[in-house]
Design a protein that fits this description.
The chain is α+β, with helices and mostly antiparallel strands. The chain contains seven helices and eight strands, in the order αβαββαβαββααβαβ. The chain has a four-stranded antiparallel β-sheet. Strand 5 and strand 6 form a beta hairpin. Helix 4 packs antiparallel against helix 5. The protein is globular, with a radius of gyration of 17 Å. The relative contact order is 0.15. The model has no long low-confidence stretch (mean pLDDT 96).
Length: 177
């Protein structure tokens, strides 16, 4: 991914307080640069990804269109965008050389917000996630629709717990450090 960032200097921006569809529309209107939705974090919070110039144009257009905030993030590249394509082959080889067992429960993957148990599908979705948006909001909603009521964040911090609560206040969240 680092090499992809060096090949195509790029960045990301957080957009707050605007409908996803309006953000997608504005990004699509920038036809001479790469600008795409990258992370659907929660309703009203979407991260966009693309070329440096494209993101700068998008930030100004989004602010003018009424976004509560649109700010460039201090990141090294346009993750979850087509600009990560140069990293695909190396990732694909690494995943192909890794043994995946059939999971005992479905694995919900953010690339399309669907559950999977077939290791071949799981592997392909991991590769696809490199250049596709993270559909966190849609994934949480799908897990809730499938009966999920309790979400546990594993690792330091509570960012994901906060995002889950923004998506649905009725579910229970906790964390394991």
């Amino acid at each position: 991914m680092q090499r992809a960032c060096e090949i195509n200097p790029s960045t990301m921006a957080a957009v707050l307080g605007m409908e996803d569809s309006k953000i997608e529309e504005i990004c699509a209107s920038i036809t001479n640069e790469v600008v795409v939705a990258a992370n659907y974090n929660s309703p009203g919070q979407l991260v966009i990804s693309g070329s440096i110039e494209g993101i700068n144009i998008a930030v100004e257009l989004l602010k003018a269109a009424g976004a509560k905030r649109a700010l460039v993030l201090p990141v090294g590249g346009a993750f979850h965008s087509p600009l990560m394509e140069p990293a695909r082959q190396e990732l694909q080889e690494a995943i192909a050389n890794t043994n995946f067992n059939t999971p005992t429960c479905p694995v919900y993957q953010n690339v399309d917000a669907q559950p999977y148990t077939d290791p071949a599908h799981i592997k392909q979705n991991l590769i696809n996630q490199l250049t596709a948006p993270v559909r966190w909001t849609q994934t949480v909603l799908k897990m809730i629709a499938d009966g999920g009521t309790h979400f546990t964040e594993v690792g330091p911090g509570s960012v994901l717990q906060g995002l889950v609560k923004k998506i649905n206040k009725e579910v229970t969240t906790d964390g394991i450090n």
